[in-house]
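User: Could you check the structure of this?
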Amino acid sequence: MLAGAAVAVPLVRLALSLLPFRTVHRAVARAVRRGRRADGVSADRVIWGVRAVAARVPAATCLTQALAASVLLSRYGHEATLRVGVAKDAGGHLRAHAWLESHGEMILGAPAPGAFHPLPPLVLS
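Assistant: Sure, the predicted structure tokens are below.
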């Protein structure tokens, strides 16, 4: 499982640094739609793998992790919804955060309650 994360996280990170978000989002959405639907790997194991690899990939942000995990989760038959929230910091600057939800629970990148105002879900499937 870690092998999938070892490819997905750096690939998504590179794509986000070189391509517009819209292009990366469409590519991830296509990958999610055609996911293999293989069994045997738990959602917890996928999230663990993404977090482990992201800790070693420079600038693997919450968005990088959420997009990479979305692809891998779909490959192993798990559904997840990409969420993005926004907030202003103390200086009035806009901040954003990405996380994944599955069946009403935050499974990756859960923000502190009330810290971000969630935008409508980003559809990947």
